[in-house]
Amino acid sequence: MAKILNEINNILLPQVCFGCNTQLFRGEHILCAVCRHDVPLTDHNFLEENAVDRIFYGRIPIKKAASFVFFSKNGIVKNLLHWLKYKNQEQIGGFFGDWYGSFLEKDKGLSKIDVVVPVPLHRKKLKKRGYNQTALFAQKIASSIGAEYRDDLLLKILNTKTQTKKDRQLRWENSKAAFQLNPKCKTSYGHILLVDDVITTGATIESCAKVLLQLKNVDVSVVSIAVVP
């Protein structure tokens, strides 16, 4: 019965591709096959050095960093992330998480991850948006690699404005005191995977990682949905 109702719903309210707005066929989700093929994957893995690793050299001891796709000012990734962050389309994060998770679970260079932690939103922004745009992406990755998921380990205590148009120095000034460990969380971990949506200058990740590295005997690795080349 559920399958029949779903088919009827698809006929009355057909799902369309977030990339080109054409109707999706059975087996397609979020993107049609053509648009999915056009998504600019980075091919980063956890064995080889990449451009995301180099962002943090000399700044913070990140064990390994990688991103799933490239972000450009005009393109399918920008459109998808805009829908994810501002148009109440949280399922796009899950789509990216399932896709990237299928790569990470096979990555022989990925050391054992104990816990996956999304970059948090301030409680006011979370209440306004209704969800953390990175959360579902991080949950799917945690499930794929067999790690715990925690969204209460790291807190954002300053409600900073969007940093989209800020340069590196301003991003750093905005982020350096914005995060703290949750004093109620006493659990210790050996390897934390910190997850963000887009890495531009790395200022947000740097601030979060510095806080997480206050924990004893911990390594921090990083992944994001996208990176600005």
TrEMBL record:
Gene3D superfamilies: 3.40.50.2020. Belongs to the ComF/GntX family. This is ComF family protein. It comes from the Bacteria. InterPro entries: ComF/GntX_DNA_util-trans (IPR051910), PRTase-like (IPR029057), PRTase_dom (IPR000836).
